[in-house]
TrEMBL record:
Keyword ATP-binding in record: no
InterPro entries in alphabetical order: RBP11-like (IPR036603), RBP11-like_dimer (IPR009025), Rpo11-like (IPR022905)
Native source organism of the sequence: Methanoculleus submarinus
Domain DNA-directed RNA polymerase RBP11-like dimerisation: 13-84
CDD domains registered for this protein in UniProt: RNAP_L
Protein name: DNA-directed RNA polymerase subunit Rpo11
GO molecular function: DNA-directed RNA polymerase activity; protein dimerization activity
Length: 92
């Protein structure tokens, strides 16, 4: 996954996810919006065949890149939990 920072201000980030589909970005946007200091988290895509972009705006002084990093870590944690449970099912 290659990321390209398109815009960064104190309360807004736009990141292009080169070569990626929508699935991960939609999950990341859903996780981001659970953060009370995230105002907007959405995927934008000009055309179906173009790379998707994630737009995040924050409130209360939360740096948008930190909000994105924290949300990605939470998603990774959820995936680890599912993996552990699936492995436990296989050995049961």
């Amino acid at each position: 996954m290659k990321l390209k920072l398109l815009e960064l201000t104190d309360d807004k980030a736009r990141i292009l996810f080169e070569g990626e589909g929508n699935t991960y970005i939609d999950a990341l946007a859903t996780e981001l919006i659970r953060d009370p200091q995230v105002d907007v988290a959405q995927r934008k895509q000009a055309f179906r065949f173009t790379d998707p972009e994630l737009v995040v705006t924050t409130v209360g002084g939360r740096p948008p890149l930190l909000a994105i990093t924290d949300a990605a870590k939470r998603l990774s944690g959820y995936a680890g939990e599912i993996l552990s449970q699936m492995e436990a099912l296989e050995t049961a």
